[in-house]
């Protein structure tokens, strides 16, 4: 037993004899003071980490520009790559990617489109036959949503080496489109056999046998947020990691206009106008990871999860015109609920000047628990006319698109 213990001690001391000098030599010669730098992002290039000819580790508030040489080693500052031991180890390019050490601003040109997770049918050809609904004539899926130009603007301040404070405005976005269809099929004693969602596609007099239907929609989106980013001291490697804590305000609103026209002997015009508003206030948590690719480039991934208090509402104005006499039926409803949003973005950053960074990327926002106009079309015509108004605030929508922009820092 004693012999085995002695053997274990010999192995431990033998390993320590080999490893400790290497470790102490690495810290003493390469790391002039402090501990090794944790992340190269916004800092030294990877190969400059263990150079003898450089100052102490840089943090966010220190100027990271070259030369890295100490004052007493004038040969290094002269730019002679062979002057610093080991040769060439401290010679760098004109600058390397660095963290902002004061204030910074980001301006992105960020066109967005949006996708709703389902399409609502508003008009069919004929009433159901044998329980089978007629062919679709018009639906919200016929509306083509293009990319709308907008901007994402961020202003940040480096409060301390590990804390940044940011404010971001994301807007102003709006989308609109319209579609229409005609039908001259003989039905109901006239021309036109279109049934609509206003009667739940039943052959109801004054609501069915339409020869013309049209649908238009307008949507808008804006976002404002304030965040604190806390830089994590992770093990050495090519990654920079920050945690995000913030507040956010989002507005999402829509308007929808639907119209159906029937000729004699079922002459009638039905107009439906719906507006939905979502006023969302809440907090968000997230993280940001930057992966250094070279001295001037890095990949950046940003993820946030938001929980909102949503003041959702809808107002509906249904107008039926029969014999040239219009009758208006207004209804409305409001509700408060919890909504959720996921905000994801990925960017490739190229620092082509010490104070300027080119950004290229893609972003997506997933919003759940909102009122959408198409979901709030009342299918029961009695409720549509007489109320009470109903509110469906279970909608889901995705806003997404590419972006290109610049970051200025100092």
Description:
- The protein has 410 residues and is mainly beta.
- The longest helix has 28 residues, at 2-29.
- The protein is 9% helix and 51% strand.
- It is elongated.
- Residues 1-5, 17-79 and 84-94 have low confidence and may be disordered.
- It has two domains: 2-77, no CATH class; 103-409, Lipocalin (Beta Barrel).
- The chain has helices spanning 2-29, 74-77, 381-386; strands spanning 103-109, 113-116, 121-125, 136-139, 151-160, 163-182, 186-187, 190-191, 194-196, 212-231, 239-262, 268-292, 297-322, 325-353, 356-370, 395-409.
- The strands form three sheets. A ten-stranded antiparallel β-barrel has the order 1-5-6-10-11-12-13-14-15-16. A three-stranded antiparallel sheet has the order 4-3-9, with no helix packed on it.
């Amino acid at each position: 037993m004693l012999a085995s213990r002695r053997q274990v001690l010999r192995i431990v001391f033998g390993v320590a004899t080999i490893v400790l000098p290497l470790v102490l030599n690495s810290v003493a010669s390469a790391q002039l003071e402090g501990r090794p730098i944790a992340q190269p992002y916004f800092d030294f290039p990877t190969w400059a980490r263990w150079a003898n000819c450089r100052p102490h580790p840089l943090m966010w508030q220190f100027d990271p520009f070259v030369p890295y040489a100490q004052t007493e080693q004038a040969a290094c500052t002269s730019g002679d790559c062979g002057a610093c031991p080991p040769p060439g180890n401290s010679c760098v390019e004109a600058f390397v990617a660095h963290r902002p050490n004061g204030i910074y601003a980001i301006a992105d040109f960020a066109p967005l489109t949006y996708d709703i997770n389902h399409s609502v049918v508003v008009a069919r050809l004929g009433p159901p036959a044998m329980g089978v609904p007629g062919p679709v004539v018009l639906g919200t899926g016929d509306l083509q949503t293009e990319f709308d130009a907008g901007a994402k603007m961020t202003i940040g301040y480096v409060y301390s080496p590990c804390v940044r404070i940011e404010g971001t405005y994301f807007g102003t976005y709006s989308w609109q489109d319209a579609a229409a269809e005609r039908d001259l099929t003989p039905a109901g004693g006239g021309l036109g056999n279109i049934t609509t969602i206003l009667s739940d596609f039943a052959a109801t007099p004054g609501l069915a046998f339409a020869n013309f239907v049209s649908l238009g929609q307008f949507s808008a989106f804006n976002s404002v947020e304030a965040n604190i980013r806390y830089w994590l001291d992770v093990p050495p490697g090519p990654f920079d990691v920050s945690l995000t804590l913030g507040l956010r305000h989002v507005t999402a609103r829509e308007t929808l206009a639907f119209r159906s026209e029937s000729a004699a002997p079922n002459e009638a015009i039905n107009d439906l106008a719906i507006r939905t508003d979502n006023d969302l206030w809440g907090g968000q948590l997230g993280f940001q990871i930057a992966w250094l690719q070279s001295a001037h480039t890095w990949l950046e991934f940003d993820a946030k999860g938001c929980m909102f208090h949503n003041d959702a509402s809808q107002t509906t104005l249904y107008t039926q015109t029969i014999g040239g006499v219009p009758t208006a039926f207004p209804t409305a409803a409001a509700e408060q609920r919890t909504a959720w949003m996921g905000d994801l973005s990925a960017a490739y950053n190229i620092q082509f000047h010490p104070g300027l960074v080119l950004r290229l990327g893609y972003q997506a926002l997933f919003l759940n628990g909102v009122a959408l106009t198409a979901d709030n079309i009342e299918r029961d015509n009695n409720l549509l006319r007489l109320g009470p108004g109903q509110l469906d605030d279970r909608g889901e929508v995705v806003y997404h698109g590419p972006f290109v922009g610049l970051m200025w820092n100092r």
